[in-house]
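Open question from group meeting: does this chain pack into something compact, or does most of it stay loose? Before anyone orders reagents, we agreed to write out a predicted structure and look at it together. Recording both the input and the output here so the notebook holds the full record.
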Amino acid sequence: MKQGFININKASGDPSTRPVGQMKRCTHMPCGHMGTLDPLASGVLPVGVGRATRLFDYFLDKKKTYIATFLFGEDYDTLDITGRLSKTGGYVPTKEEVASVLPQFIGEIGQVPPKFSAKCVNGRRGYELARSGVDFELAAKTIRIDDIELLDIKDNAFRFAIDCGGGTYIRSLGRDIAAAVHTTAAMSALCRTRSGVFTIEKAVPMEQITEENVESYIVPTEDVLPFARISLNDAAMRKILCGVPVLADYADGLYKLFLSDGSFYGVAEVQSGLAKVKIKLC
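Structure tokens returned:
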């Protein structure tokens, strides 16, 4: 069984752990998802197979695209319609009002995560504390929003396309846009259409993948790693594979490392003209 990534199209209502469990059963290998989607959300959920799971940290900050719908004038404790409704019938802004505040959310901004989230507070998950009725505050974190486009409006449902960096809470973004026009909003639908190189057009429903065909859906790790290839001569390769740093005329950074037979070995790191193995994947 080859190792790499499977681009799952997660269905709304499924937890992110369900596709991971299914891929474990199909591949008989360790698997893990790259970037959690809330149960309400659908769309792109890359699942790492085998040693590819070691690379998640190198993908977490990659660009993501979402299509999100917010119900203005409504408020739920979870910031989406899966929670407890605390307000309805509130002010619904005009298209012009919403469009006028969107520029202030572009770029690097501070964002407070939802209390109903996996963020930890003194060793406990935020959603555990919130469900227990514990009063607490989460610190703002810096996130990056590259673009927000208001696509359409139907009654109080405003649909947006959002390009952002990793770690962005779309529910919180809806809350903050609404606050900027002096009202509230709750997310009613969310679809992730891109996560780095993985797109919705090439994503596969979990139910389509079986133990018999799973290997055909695995994208090789070297095809999706966002690094250039490093070339070393045979003597340097023998040293670097033994853990010895070697001279390399490359800029500082991470590179894909291949064996002399062309097979993918792992990730190399160059610092101050010296290259060494960072992660072995073969």
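Observations to bring back to the group:
The CA atoms of residues 118 and 125 lie 5 Å apart.
The chain has a mean pLDDT of 92.
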